[in-house]
Recover the amino acids of this structure.
């Protein structure tokens, strides 16, 4: 939590010592109790504070308090802020006549000026340079400098007169001519005048300078007034904010057929109750000020320092990353600015907003502004204003909110759809903790938080903050009830709106939001997911999700976030379609598509044999090697890319990623690596820097929506049309606010490569070795499909498409508990197949569009084993698709080749070698692990024999050629000689046999 508070929520402020912070052990529940707390008393009190309070007169911080019971992480976060060393003390600066909140004028005036006792010597003016009251002024030289004064002394016998001393003559250096400015200074300037005349000249120059400054100030002020009036003349009126606050129009979310999915209730009809500031808990006022605008009571409607800080951060980041809106500016945006201007993020709009805020501050008191603001903002779950929020979340009035309840509510308005305790509990609780830390820091900086509706300031120390956090953490929130169709979709649409518009604009502007959801297909998908999850209950399957996209438009037709939104036991409120999970083998098509960009084809040969890899892909990785295995725990020898991808073999996929690379190489011009390739196709969650080769087997988290969008890009011929959910937004008067313009799409991968991926994933014959002849993914029409299963059966995936429809399915458990023997084929594929068939029937009448073959695709006959053009040794052939500029390898690069081999060295024979050679049928093997498999593994020997080779086939290595310098055997017969005729038996044979090192024995064979 500490890391979250520091990195995500809080820009830690400089901590100052403050004597008004409460003891950790104290936790009053009522503001009145604070008045009796000695720590909260005035600094001028004669009573001493408790020994653990901060002491302004001491350089030492208090001793560390014992951590209270509760959330120790929050206590540590606050404690670390408490104990931060400081280099100086800060007191609040006030303009003349301005008094601190909570002090009367007499008390403030008594502290305004304290006369200091002076010494009598302080009234004596210092003497002038070079003179005293008892001596005349010294003589001056030609430059106006005082000459040395000769002192009269009595005569002495030992003194020597100056005339008796002989001196050496020196050459006089001529005086250099001086500038006109120096000459003027001597003759006319103050330097040539007496002291009174010089100061008079300086005074005249000062008057002239002041005059020029006044003129410039008048000109600058006139220009400022001119531009202020010019902008102010275009601003709306702010005279009656209360009347504007009463205006409200309900926002409606519709499906693609115009049916209302969700309607935001008018806050005047039961979800908004206006209450005066006096009826609002001081804790909520303090929490709101600390969170939204710590200097609310000090600035004129806009915070100059916050604007400067925001401008600086935006300038250095070259984009708008920080805002500077005060509470008054937020109220301005809510009630005065038009909806189209509210969403603008220009500096002109911010300037107009600041001017309006200044006008509101001039016409309304701070209390009135705060009251309007707290009654207008949205707290989520249909609660507008503090009273409705108090009743919705805590079933109490805003007047009786505790510190814990107030800090919880104060954190909601920033992002009400995200900070929803019912659907995003952890993030909402972290937000409340952040508010408590902000209240604690503001207490340190300002000497507690002064609020106008309470006599005593609100002081939040570590003990109070921890207790408040524990109170909300253990509070049993009861979800409100309302009618909402397809809630996961509604929340998804709401989050999109909040990323585009101000939250208050969304809930108050009467928008009509037209979405892409197909209600019929959505109902079908929801029903099928729920039914299949129930069928798999015995295998510990509790949840599922689905996304259906139209590839050529990017429109999301269906989104199933869970099997049952209202089932808390399965965390059904979590939208699993946008929650990152490991995709298993369903990410493999991206790996092979990236390999196509680097020259591979569907016929490229990969050896599926036992292999080892450095886990990170870096040859220098010191860790133990990574040894992937296939799902069927078998090795399949040489396979082509088509066979490897269609059957989802793991070892070939890892070798493909090893070829492609994981990350981009900055030293190369072209983009390389699976990560940048996946990001180009729309994957947004692969952002770590420690991925390894297991990434291609599902070692990185992706969302179902992102991955389905990638498959839709394959279906659309490599042209990416990003997923879209909103097509049109109108205001309450029917004026167009937003309209989706369907883009032509970006060609993120070549159409030829997208076609090759679709061809492989829709090849029912190619997947027979791994899936059989009639798997569930074989539909009545041609469709591409890919399954995925993660380790321990935690995630099941199936994704597939036609040119008309792309569907992605996830099955698993939201809490990451494993399922039992459930795969992508048995868990997710039945849902995918049923939704695909009903969706195609609905969209096309049962006549799906066939995959279009690009002009750049050619078809060639290849050897089905090696993937090259067939040679005479190829045992079988088939046809294959290729990009025209990436044809198959020629037949002379086939796997088999008959070669001449030196019989002694077993190297390829050349003319330099002697006549010890023979012909052999060998094979080309570049993979070192395949060579080991062929020579040492029984399965490798069996495969070689089935291919017409010997049990231990000759592996052709064109880098090893025999030469005349190779060592040769020595064989010389002494008897019988070559010409001898042998007529007796037995025969004695004498011979000399020798060879290179390692020679053991020789055997003579005859017959």
């Amino acid at each position: 939590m500490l890391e979250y508070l520091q990195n995500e929520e809080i820009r830690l402020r400089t901590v100052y010592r403050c004597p008004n912070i409460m003891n950790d052990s104290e936790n009053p529940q009522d503001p009145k109790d604070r008045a009796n707390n000695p720590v909260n008393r005035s600094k001028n009190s004669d009573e001493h504070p408790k020994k653990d309070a901060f002491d302004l007169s001491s350089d030492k911080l208090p001793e560390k308090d014992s951590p209270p019971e509760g959330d120790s992480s929050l206590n540590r976060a606050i404690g670390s802020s408490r104990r931060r060393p400081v280099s100086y003390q800060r007191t609040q600066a006030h303009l003349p006549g301005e008094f601190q909140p909570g002090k009367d004028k007499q008390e403030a005036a008594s502290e305004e000026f304290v006369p200091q006792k002076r010494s009598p010597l302080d009234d004596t003016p210092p003497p002038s340079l070079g003179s005293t009251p008892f001596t005349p002024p010294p003589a001056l030289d030609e430059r106006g400098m005082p000459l040395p004064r000769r002192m009269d002394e009595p005569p002495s016998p030992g003194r020597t007169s100056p005339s008796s001393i002989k001196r050496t003559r020196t050459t006089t250096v001529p005086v250099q001519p001086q500038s006109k400015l120096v000459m003027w200074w001597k003759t006319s300037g103050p330097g040539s005048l007496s002291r009174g005349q010089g100061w008079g000249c300086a005074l005249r120059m000062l008057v002239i300078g002041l005059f020029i400054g006044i003129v410039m100030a008048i000109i600058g002020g006139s220009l400022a007034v001119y531009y202020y009036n010019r902008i102010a003349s275009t601003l709306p009126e702010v005279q009656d904010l209360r009347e504007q606050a009463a205006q409200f129009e309900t926002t409606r979310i519709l499906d693609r057929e115009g049916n209302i999915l969700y309607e935001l209730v008018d806050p005047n009809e039961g979800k908004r109750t206006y209450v005066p500031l006096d009826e609002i808990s001081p804790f909520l006022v303090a929490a709101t000020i600390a969170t939204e605008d710590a200097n609310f009571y000090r600035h004129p409607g806009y915070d100059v320092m916050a604007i400067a800080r925001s401008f600086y951060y935006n300038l250095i980041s070259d984009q708008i990353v920080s805002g500077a809106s005060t509470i008054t500016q937020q109220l301005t945006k809510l009630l005065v600015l038009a909806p189209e201007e509210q969403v603008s993020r220009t500096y002109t709009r911010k300037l107009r907003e600041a001017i309006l805020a200044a006008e509101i501050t001039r016409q309304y008191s701070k209390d009135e502004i705060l009251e309007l603001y707290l009654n207008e903002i949205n707290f989520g779950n249909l609660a507008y204003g503090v009273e409705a929020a108090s009743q919705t979340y805590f079933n109490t009035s805003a007047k009786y909110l505790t510190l814990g309840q107030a800090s919880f509510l104060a954190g909601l308005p920033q992002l009400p759809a995200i900070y929803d305790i019912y659907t995003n509990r952890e993030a909402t609780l972290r937000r409340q903790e952040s508010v408590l830390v902000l209240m604690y820091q503001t207490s340190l900086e300002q000497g507690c938080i002064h609020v106008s509706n309470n006599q005593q300031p609100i002081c939040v120390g570590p003990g109070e903050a921890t207790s408040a956090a524990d109170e909300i953490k253990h509070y049993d929130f009861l979800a409100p009830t309302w009618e909402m169709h397809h809630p996961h979709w509604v929340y998804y649409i709401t989050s999109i709106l909040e990323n585009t518009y101000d939250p208050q604009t969304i809930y108050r502007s009467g928008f009509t939001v037209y979405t892409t959801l197909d209600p019929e297909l959505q109902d079908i998908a929801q029903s099928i997911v729920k039914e299949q999850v129930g069928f798999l209950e015995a295998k510990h399957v509790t949840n599922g999700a689905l996304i259906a996209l139209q590839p050529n438009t990017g429109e999301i037709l269906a989104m199933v976030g869970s099997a049952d939104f209202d089932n808390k036991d399965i965390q059904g409120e979590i939208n699993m379609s946008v929650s990152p999970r490991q995709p298993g083998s369903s990410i493999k098509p991206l790996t092979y598509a990236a390999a196509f960009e680097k020259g591979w084809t569907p016929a490229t040969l990969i050896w599926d044999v036992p292999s080892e890899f450095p886990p990170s892909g870096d040859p220098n990785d010191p860790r133990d090697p990574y040894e992937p295995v296939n799902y069927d725990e078998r090795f399949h020898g040489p396979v082509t890319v088509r066979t490897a991808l269609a059957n989802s073999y793991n070892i070939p996929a890892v070798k493909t990623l090893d070829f492609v690379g994981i990350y981009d190489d900055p030293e190369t011009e072209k983009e390389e690596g699976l990560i940048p390739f996946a990001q180009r196709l729309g994957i947004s969650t692969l952002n770590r820097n420690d991925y390894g080769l297991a990434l291609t087997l599902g070692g990185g988290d992706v969302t179902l929506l992102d991955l389905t969008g990638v498959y839709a890009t394959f279906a659309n011929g490599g042209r990416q049309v990003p997923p879209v959910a909103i097509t049109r937004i109108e205001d309450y008067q029917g004026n167009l606010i937003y309209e989706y313009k369907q883009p032509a799409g970006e060609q993120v991968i070549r159409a030829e490569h997208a076609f090759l991926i679709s061809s492989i994933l829709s090849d029912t014959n190619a997947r027979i070795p791994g899936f059989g002849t009639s798997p569930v993914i074989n539909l009545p029409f041609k469709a591409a499909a890919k399954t995925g299963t993660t380790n321990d059966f935690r995630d099941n995936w199936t994704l597939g498409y036609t040119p008309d429809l792309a569907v992605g399915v996830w099955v698993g458990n939201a809490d990451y508990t494993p399922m039992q023997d459930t795969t992508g084929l048995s868990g997710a594929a039945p849902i995918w197949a049923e939704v695909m068939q009903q969706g195609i029937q609905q969209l096309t009448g049962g006549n799906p569009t066939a995959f279009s073959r690009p002009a750049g695709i050619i078809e060639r006959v290849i050897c089905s084993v090696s993937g090259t053009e067939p040679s005479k040794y190829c045992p079988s052939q088939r046809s294959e698709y290729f990009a025209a500029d990436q044809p198959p390898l020629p037949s002379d690069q086939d796997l088999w080749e008959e070669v001449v081999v030196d019989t002694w060295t077993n190297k390829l024979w050349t003319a330099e070698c002697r006549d010890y050679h023979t012909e052999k049928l060998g094979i080309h093997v570049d993979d070192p692990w395949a060579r080991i498999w062929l020579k040492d593994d029984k399965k490798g020997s069996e495969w070689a024999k089935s291919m017409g080779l010997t049990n231990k086939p000759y592996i052709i290595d064109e880098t090893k050629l025999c030469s005349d310098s190779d060592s040769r055997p020595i064989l010389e017969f002494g008897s019988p000689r070559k010409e001898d005729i042998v007529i007796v038996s037995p025969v004695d044979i004498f011979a000399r046999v020798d060879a290179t090192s390692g020679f053991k024995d020789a055997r003579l064979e005859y017959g």
User: Anything to note?
Assistant: The chain has 31 helices and 21 strands. The radius of gyration is 43 Å. The CA atoms of residues 142 and 644 lie 103 Å apart. The longest strand covers residues 917-924.
